[in-house]
Amino acid sequence: MGMKATVPITVAELKTACSQCNLLELCLPFGMSEDEINRLDELVGTRRKIKRQQNLYRAGDPFEAIYAIRTGSFKTDVLLEDGREQVTGFQMTGEILGLDGISAEAHTCNAVALEDSEVCVIAYGKLEELSRVVEGLQHQFHKVMSREIVRDHGVMMLLGSMRAEERLAAFLLNLSQRFTARGFSAAEFHLRMTRDEIGSYLGLKLETVSRAFSKFQDDGLIAVQQKHIRILDIPGLKKLIQRNASAR
Amino acid sequence: MGMKATVPITVAELKTACSQCNLLELCLPFGMSEDEINRLDELVGTRRKIKRQQNLYRAGDPFEAIYAIRTGSFKTDVLLEDGREQVTGFQMTGEILGLDGISAEAHTCNAVALEDSEVCVIAYGKLEELSRVVEGLQHQFHKVMSREIVRDHGVMMLLGSMRAEERLAAFLLNLSQRFTARGFSAAEFHLRMTRDEIGSYLGLKLETVSRAFSKFQDDGLIAVQQKHIRILDIPGLKKLIQRNASAR
DNA sequence: GCCCGCCGTTGATCCACGTCAAACACAATT
DNA sequence: AATTGTGTTTGACGTGGATCAACGGCGGGC
Predict the structure, then answer these.
(1) Domain that holds residue A149
(2) Which residue in the set A100, A128, A203 is minimally distant from B138, CB to CB?
(3) How far apart are CA A76 and CA A152, in angstroms?
(4) Do A92 and A168 belong to one domain?
């Protein structure tokens, strides 16, 4: 299900590259000099538009490029033979996708657009080449990879030693913080994923996620209406995570 | 608890570097030309011996180097303010420690030796520098980081969508496979970590881990005696993971 | 060789979350 | 406006693994 959607854009549309991109501080170029960033422009060969529910790549696809999200958002997931799915992450604007593919020269997870999205295609070979010349790029790329490792450790903490409501609170706070970093409201946002996908990410069933949302609403911590979330009490959510010194 | 144990070795002991190291194929140099590997020797400045139960580094320590395990084994863990611990990984000979520190220029987890161990200290600045010159090194380093991301996704799968016995089976198979890669028996080995540490890693309580071990023994899949494990039926363990299409 | 502390095992009970089921909200389609 | 489908909420009930508790085994220090 879901056809592959590769929509290379015309040369005319390609005029704004990294050097003019307003996502600069969230993406690879962060921390590089102007001169260095100008040299980055050659790196981003293409853009690609991906429609909602379509795959940017699938597990097993040969690895050729990594992707920076220009607009939209994605989930990444891993499938077990028996059909079980584990969502390994949700990515939004400015974040990098595809790093898992370097190790085996093939992607090891699926990346699916949660809404109509656009990514910058960064040919991996070129990236390695350029990062041998541009010192700041090499270091920034290492930081991006390292950040992904740190983030994954956070998720392991969440899955391994938090209870359902703590997991959801941590998830909401994480989203809030990422929206803030992008200049959006910390308190009010639209979820792009379903309860089922949140549940898969958090190691919970969709009903448990739904109940936790309702509980938070009853407790005056948030206001939920379907996918629309308003956080009313950020400190309250934070407290939820820290106490509960019990738990598995 | 646990004092810092930094034991720099003498120049005389330092004679065998990467170019003569028999762990070569498991460590960074893998896939590099002989000439390239010779240049690696300058990279490994020091070795460090770490006694059982002592920290190689702690969360918050400034990041300066990554470490390749020469002998012994480690666990890495993250602590929550309320005292909860999550073991994020067990590392053995030839594996690289400390990659999480690059992103924030400080370590984000604790690395503790599970037995008396020795690591090669790889100054990170030098590594970046050298990997700008030695193409194979850069690529190999990226692969190592990427492999860590992939491994973490595997753990997320385990924590998020497998039941207790499946998790333990996956853990044992993973150990078995890593021992095999190091030329040890696939079927018989000694656990270096406690039930509690296994439990923390797998998101289970130590009693549950213990019961699962006993169950496997009753079912003729393994023979356990405390930390000594003998795997009797590898396909049986594999089957355990794949079926059970139910689960959370 | 004995004591002590840590680690592991096993049993009995409890509870957080999964499962099953029904109803509902909203969007797209006609 | 009715229709259909997909996602969400809520309730009733079941269960896997946590919790609590007691005991057993091994290794290290004296």
Answers:
(1) 11-157
(2) A128
(3) 12
(4) no
